[in-house]
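task queued by scheduler; priority normal; single chain, no ligands, no partner chains; default sampling; output format set to C-alpha coordinates
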Amino acid sequence: MQNNLSTTEQQNPNTINIDEKSTFEILETINKEDQIVPHAVSLILPQLANAIDCIYNVLSKGGRLIYIGAGTSGRMGILDASECPPTFGVPPTLIQGVIAGGPIALTHAVEGAEDSKDMGKDDLVKIKLDSHDVVCGIATSGQTPYVIGGLCYAGLTGCPTISISCVKNAEVSKYSDYPIECIVGPEVITGSTRMKAGTATKLILNMITTTVMIKMGKIYGNLMIDVQPTNNKLKKRALRIVKEVTGIEDEKKVEDLLNECNYNVKIAILKELTGKTIKECEEELEKNKGHVRKTIKSFMKK
Protein backbone atom coordinates (compact mmCIF):
# COMPACT_ATOMS: atom_id res chain seq x y z
CA MET A 1 0.00 0.00 0.00
CA GLN A 2 2.80 2.41 0.91
CA ASN A 3 4.31 2.08 -2.56
CA ASN A 4 1.14 3.61 -4.02
CA LEU A 5 1.68 6.77 -1.98
CA SER A 6 3.59 9.74 -3.35
CA THR A 7 7.09 10.12 -1.92
CA THR A 8 6.04 13.08 0.20
CA GLU A 9 3.33 10.99 1.89
CA GLN A 10 5.41 7.90 2.61
CA GLN A 11 6.68 7.08 6.09
CA ASN A 12 10.39 7.70 6.60
CA PRO A 13 12.06 4.52 7.98
CA ASN A 14 14.81 6.65 9.52
CA THR A 15 12.43 8.56 11.79
CA ILE A 16 9.80 6.01 12.84
CA ASN A 17 10.89 6.18 16.49
CA ILE A 18 11.65 9.90 16.58
CA ASP A 19 9.12 10.45 19.38
CA GLU A 20 11.25 8.29 21.68
CA LYS A 21 14.45 10.28 21.16
CA SER A 22 16.02 12.97 23.31
CA THR A 23 16.00 16.61 22.22
CA PHE A 24 19.54 16.36 20.86
CA GLU A 25 18.78 13.08 19.06
CA ILE A 26 15.70 14.62 17.42
CA LEU A 27 17.78 17.54 16.18
CA GLU A 28 20.50 15.19 14.97
CA THR A 29 17.93 13.14 13.05
CA ILE A 30 16.35 16.19 11.42
CA ASN A 31 19.75 17.60 10.52
CA LYS A 32 20.83 14.32 8.92
CA GLU A 33 17.70 14.26 6.77
CA ASP A 34 18.15 17.91 5.82
CA GLN A 35 21.58 17.11 4.42
CA ILE A 36 19.85 15.11 1.68
CA VAL A 37 18.35 18.27 0.21
CA PRO A 38 21.38 20.03 -1.34
CA HIS A 39 22.42 16.83 -3.12
CA ALA A 40 18.89 16.35 -4.46
CA VAL A 41 18.95 19.92 -5.78
CA SER A 42 22.33 19.33 -7.45
CA LEU A 43 20.79 16.53 -9.52
CA ILE A 44 18.19 18.80 -11.15
CA LEU A 45 20.54 21.64 -12.15
CA PRO A 46 20.35 20.87 -15.93
CA GLN A 47 16.54 21.09 -15.89
CA LEU A 48 16.71 24.17 -13.68
CA ALA A 49 19.14 25.89 -16.04
CA ASN A 50 16.76 25.38 -18.98
CA ALA A 51 13.86 26.80 -16.97
CA ILE A 52 15.93 29.82 -15.90
CA ASP A 53 16.97 30.57 -19.48
CA CYS A 54 13.27 30.56 -20.38
CA ILE A 55 12.45 32.92 -17.50
CA TYR A 56 15.28 35.28 -18.44
CA ASN A 57 14.07 35.38 -22.03
CA VAL A 58 10.55 36.28 -20.86
CA LEU A 59 11.62 38.92 -18.33
CA SER A 60 14.12 40.56 -20.66
CA LYS A 61 11.25 41.14 -23.09
CA GLY A 62 9.04 42.79 -20.49
CA GLY A 63 7.08 39.76 -19.32
CA ARG A 64 6.46 38.61 -15.76
CA LEU A 65 7.31 35.53 -13.67
CA ILE A 66 4.29 34.23 -11.78
CA TYR A 67 4.65 31.66 -9.02
CA ILE A 68 1.50 29.71 -8.18
CA GLY A 69 1.09 27.26 -5.31
CA ALA A 70 -0.90 26.20 -2.26
CA GLY A 71 0.11 26.04 1.40
CA THR A 72 3.86 26.01 2.00
CA SER A 73 4.54 26.00 -1.74
CA GLY A 74 2.45 29.13 -2.27
CA ARG A 75 4.06 30.88 0.68
CA MET A 76 7.54 30.10 -0.65
CA GLY A 77 6.63 31.63 -4.00
CA ILE A 78 5.29 34.81 -2.42
CA LEU A 79 8.31 35.07 -0.11
CA ASP A 80 10.77 34.79 -2.99
CA ALA A 81 8.83 37.28 -5.12
CA SER A 82 8.52 39.81 -2.28
CA GLU A 83 12.27 39.86 -1.66
CA CYS A 84 13.19 40.77 -5.23
CA PRO A 85 12.22 44.50 -5.30
CA PRO A 86 14.42 45.60 -2.36
CA THR A 87 17.24 43.23 -3.29
CA PHE A 88 17.42 43.78 -7.03
CA GLY A 89 15.57 47.05 -7.60
CA VAL A 90 12.84 45.53 -9.77
CA PRO A 91 9.17 46.57 -9.70
CA PRO A 92 6.91 44.37 -7.54
CA THR A 93 4.91 43.42 -10.63
CA LEU A 94 7.87 41.71 -12.33
CA ILE A 95 7.86 38.63 -10.10
CA GLN A 96 4.61 37.76 -8.35
CA GLY A 97 3.33 34.99 -6.12
CA VAL A 98 -0.22 33.63 -6.21
CA ILE A 99 -1.49 31.37 -3.42
CA ALA A 100 -4.60 29.21 -3.13
CA GLY A 101 -7.07 30.96 -0.85
CA GLY A 102 -5.61 34.42 -1.36
CA PRO A 103 -3.56 36.59 1.06
CA ILE A 104 -5.24 35.15 4.17
CA ALA A 105 -3.68 31.78 3.28
CA LEU A 106 -0.26 33.21 4.13
CA THR A 107 -1.07 32.86 7.83
CA HIS A 108 -4.17 30.63 7.94
CA ALA A 109 -5.10 27.36 6.27
CA VAL A 110 -7.96 27.89 3.80
CA GLU A 111 -9.92 24.67 3.64
CA GLY A 112 -10.43 23.21 0.19
CA ALA A 113 -8.66 26.03 -1.67
CA GLU A 114 -5.94 23.79 -3.08
CA ASP A 115 -8.50 21.26 -4.36
CA SER A 116 -9.99 23.58 -6.98
CA LYS A 117 -8.56 23.69 -10.49
CA ASP A 118 -10.93 26.54 -11.32
CA MET A 119 -9.50 28.70 -8.53
CA GLY A 120 -6.04 28.25 -9.99
CA LYS A 121 -7.29 29.50 -13.34
CA ASP A 122 -9.35 32.32 -11.80
CA ASP A 123 -6.41 33.69 -9.81
CA LEU A 124 -4.30 33.92 -12.97
CA VAL A 125 -7.15 35.59 -14.82
CA LYS A 126 -7.30 38.20 -12.03
CA ILE A 127 -3.70 39.24 -12.64
CA LYS A 128 -4.33 39.35 -16.40
CA LEU A 129 -1.89 36.60 -17.35
CA ASP A 130 -0.98 36.58 -21.04
CA SER A 131 1.39 34.91 -23.47
CA HIS A 132 4.22 37.32 -22.61
CA ASP A 133 4.49 35.93 -19.06
CA VAL A 134 5.87 32.68 -17.61
CA VAL A 135 4.14 30.63 -14.91
CA CYS A 136 5.95 28.46 -12.37
CA GLY A 137 3.65 26.01 -10.59
CA ILE A 138 4.96 24.81 -7.21
CA ALA A 139 3.47 21.57 -5.87
CA THR A 140 5.82 19.44 -3.77
CA SER A 141 3.31 16.58 -3.76
CA GLY A 142 3.19 16.82 -7.54
CA GLN A 143 -0.59 16.67 -7.73
CA THR A 144 -2.18 19.84 -6.31
CA PRO A 145 -5.35 20.54 -8.36
CA TYR A 146 -5.07 24.32 -7.83
CA VAL A 147 -1.61 24.33 -9.40
CA ILE A 148 -2.64 21.99 -12.22
CA GLY A 149 -5.59 24.27 -13.02
CA GLY A 150 -3.26 27.26 -13.13
CA LEU A 151 -0.75 25.51 -15.38
CA CYS A 152 -3.52 24.33 -17.73
CA TYR A 153 -4.82 27.87 -18.09
CA ALA A 154 -1.30 29.24 -18.55
CA GLY A 155 -0.76 26.75 -21.36
CA LEU A 156 -3.96 27.92 -23.05
CA THR A 157 -2.77 31.54 -22.97
CA GLY A 158 0.38 30.48 -24.80
CA CYS A 159 2.83 31.41 -22.06
CA PRO A 160 5.62 28.97 -21.11
CA THR A 161 5.15 26.90 -17.97
CA ILE A 162 7.49 25.48 -15.32
CA SER A 163 6.65 23.06 -12.53
CA ILE A 164 8.50 22.25 -9.32
CA SER A 165 7.70 19.09 -7.39
CA CYS A 166 9.41 16.60 -5.09
CA VAL A 167 8.14 13.33 -6.55
CA LYS A 168 9.00 11.28 -9.62
CA ASN A 169 6.59 11.38 -12.56
CA ALA A 170 4.62 14.16 -10.92
CA GLU A 171 1.16 14.91 -12.27
CA VAL A 172 2.04 18.62 -12.56
CA SER A 173 4.94 17.70 -14.84
CA LYS A 174 2.42 16.67 -17.51
CA TYR A 175 1.21 20.27 -17.74
CA SER A 176 4.64 21.91 -17.77
CA ASP A 177 7.08 22.82 -20.53
CA TYR A 178 9.94 22.69 -18.02
CA PRO A 179 9.24 20.07 -15.33
CA ILE A 180 11.58 20.02 -12.34
CA GLU A 181 11.34 17.03 -9.99
CA CYS A 182 13.60 17.32 -6.94
CA ILE A 183 13.44 14.03 -5.03
CA VAL A 184 14.23 14.60 -1.35
CA GLY A 185 12.55 11.43 -0.05
CA PRO A 186 9.97 10.97 2.71
CA GLU A 187 9.72 13.71 5.30
CA VAL A 188 10.94 13.48 8.90
CA ILE A 189 7.32 13.83 9.96
CA THR A 190 5.17 11.97 7.45
CA GLY A 191 3.58 14.34 4.94
CA SER A 192 5.05 17.51 6.50
CA THR A 193 6.34 19.03 3.28
CA ARG A 194 7.22 22.29 5.04
CA MET A 195 10.40 20.44 5.99
CA LYS A 196 12.71 18.87 3.36
CA ALA A 197 10.43 19.63 0.41
CA GLY A 198 9.98 23.20 1.65
CA THR A 199 13.73 23.62 2.05
CA ALA A 200 14.33 22.29 -1.46
CA THR A 201 11.70 24.66 -2.82
CA LYS A 202 13.32 27.68 -1.16
CA LEU A 203 16.74 26.72 -2.51
CA ILE A 204 15.36 26.31 -6.02
CA LEU A 205 13.39 29.57 -6.01
CA ASN A 206 16.38 31.49 -4.63
CA MET A 207 18.51 30.03 -7.42
CA ILE A 208 15.94 30.97 -10.05
CA THR A 209 15.58 34.64 -9.14
CA THR A 210 19.23 35.17 -8.22
CA THR A 211 20.49 33.66 -11.48
CA VAL A 212 17.96 35.57 -13.58
CA MET A 213 18.90 38.84 -11.86
CA ILE A 214 22.61 38.21 -12.43
CA LYS A 215 21.87 37.67 -16.12
CA MET A 216 19.84 40.90 -16.15
CA GLY A 217 22.78 42.95 -14.86
CA LYS A 218 21.52 43.43 -11.31
CA ILE A 219 24.81 42.15 -9.88
CA TYR A 220 28.37 43.44 -10.38
CA GLY A 221 30.88 40.83 -9.24
CA ASN A 222 28.83 39.50 -6.35
CA LEU A 223 27.49 42.88 -5.22
CA MET A 224 23.82 43.97 -5.32
CA ILE A 225 24.31 47.14 -7.32
CA ASP A 226 20.59 47.65 -7.92
CA VAL A 227 19.80 47.64 -4.21
CA GLN A 228 17.03 50.11 -3.33
CA PRO A 229 18.14 52.18 -0.31
CA THR A 230 14.70 52.32 1.32
CA ASN A 231 16.05 52.23 4.88
CA ASN A 232 19.24 53.00 6.80
CA LYS A 233 20.56 49.45 6.55
CA LEU A 234 20.24 49.48 2.77
CA LYS A 235 21.73 52.97 2.53
CA LYS A 236 24.78 51.72 4.41
CA ARG A 237 24.94 48.73 2.08
CA ALA A 238 24.83 51.03 -0.94
CA LEU A 239 27.67 53.06 0.54
CA ARG A 240 29.77 49.92 1.16
CA ILE A 241 29.15 48.69 -2.39
CA VAL A 242 30.25 51.95 -4.00
CA LYS A 243 33.26 52.14 -1.69
CA GLU A 244 34.25 48.55 -2.53
CA VAL A 245 33.91 48.92 -6.30
CA THR A 246 35.44 52.38 -6.69
CA GLY A 247 38.16 52.11 -4.07
CA ILE A 248 37.19 55.45 -2.49
CA GLU A 249 38.33 55.39 1.16
CA ASP A 250 36.61 58.55 2.34
CA GLU A 251 33.04 57.63 3.31
CA LYS A 252 31.93 61.25 3.17
CA LYS A 253 33.06 61.41 -0.46
CA VAL A 254 31.12 58.21 -1.22
CA GLU A 255 28.03 59.63 0.48
CA ASP A 256 28.31 62.86 -1.50
CA LEU A 257 28.66 60.86 -4.72
CA LEU A 258 25.58 58.81 -3.93
CA ASN A 259 23.56 61.91 -3.07
CA GLU A 260 24.65 63.52 -6.33
CA CYS A 261 23.46 60.43 -8.20
CA ASN A 262 20.20 60.24 -6.23
CA TYR A 263 21.49 57.10 -4.49
CA ASN A 264 21.62 55.21 -7.77
CA VAL A 265 24.48 52.81 -7.05
CA LYS A 266 25.08 51.92 -10.69
CA ILE A 267 25.36 55.53 -11.82
CA ALA A 268 27.59 56.42 -8.87
CA ILE A 269 29.97 53.59 -9.77
CA LEU A 270 30.02 54.49 -13.47
CA LYS A 271 30.55 58.19 -12.81
CA GLU A 272 33.51 57.54 -10.55
CA LEU A 273 35.16 54.83 -12.66
CA THR A 274 34.70 56.46 -16.06
CA GLY A 275 34.75 60.18 -15.29
CA LYS A 276 31.61 60.66 -17.38
CA THR A 277 28.66 62.87 -16.49
CA ILE A 278 25.56 61.46 -14.86
CA LYS A 279 23.62 61.92 -18.08
CA GLU A 280 26.29 60.13 -20.13
CA CYS A 281 26.32 57.27 -17.65
CA GLU A 282 22.54 56.97 -17.72
CA GLU A 283 22.41 56.93 -21.51
CA GLU A 284 25.21 54.38 -21.93
CA LEU A 285 23.82 52.18 -19.18
CA GLU A 286 20.45 52.12 -20.92
CA LYS A 287 22.13 51.12 -24.20
CA ASN A 288 23.75 48.21 -22.38
CA LYS A 289 20.46 47.13 -20.77
CA GLY A 290 21.57 47.93 -17.24
CA HIS A 291 24.83 45.95 -17.27
CA VAL A 292 27.53 47.97 -15.49
CA ARG A 293 30.44 45.83 -16.66
CA LYS A 294 29.30 46.03 -20.29
CA THR A 295 28.82 49.78 -19.92
CA ILE A 296 32.35 50.28 -18.62
CA LYS A 297 33.73 48.28 -21.55
CA SER A 298 31.69 50.27 -24.05
CA PHE A 299 33.03 53.55 -22.61
CA MET A 300 36.57 52.21 -22.94
CA LYS A 301 36.04 51.50 -26.65
CA LYS A 302 35.09 55.10 -27.37
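post-processing summary
- The first strand starts at residue 65 and ends at 69.
- Residues 196-215 form the longest helix (20 residues).
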